[in-house]
Amino acid sequence: MCEENLVQEALGQICWLEVPVRDVPRAKAFYMELFGWEFVPEPQKAVGDCVKSMHFFNKGKTLHGAFLEHDEEYHVINNNPDKPGALPVLPTLCVLDCEETLAEANAIGGKTAV
């Protein structure tokens, strides 16, 4: 399959997903069994206060992401800049043009929060 077809196939899909977790082995087992995700064997040490390590995964050629291992004092919540101890699940969608897609989303009733 040529690269252009891969791009067209990925448009509108989640291409990167960050999932905060406390128990990495449990999360890996769950998502591997449920969705068939594959994992990079060695984690990456994360930069920052709340994330201890990043454990990369993928599903085929379109979905890639990481489990963000965090301490008990942090919790998962909707993205809120006023709560630095809150880690959101963060999906990233594949689009050709970010500005154009945001403008289109706003035109049909969406809101942009940056």
TrEMBL record:
<dbReference type="InterPro" id="IPR029068">
    <property type="entry name" value="Glyas_Bleomycin-R_OHBP_Dase"/>
</dbReference>
<dbReference type="InterPro" id="IPR053863">
    <property type="entry name" value="Glyoxy/Ble-like_N"/>
</dbReference>
<feature type="domain" description="Glyoxalase/Bleomycin resistance-like N-terminal">
    <location>
        <begin position="13"/>
        <end position="44"/>
    </location>
</feature>
<dbReference type="Pfam" id="PF22677">
    <property type="entry name" value="Ble-like_N"/>
</dbReference>
<dbReference type="InterPro" id="IPR052164">
    <property type="entry name" value="Anthracycline_SecMetBiosynth"/>
</dbReference>
<protein>
    <recommendedName>
        <fullName>Glyoxalase/Bleomycin resistance-like N-terminal domain-containing protein</fullName>
    </recommendedName>
</protein>
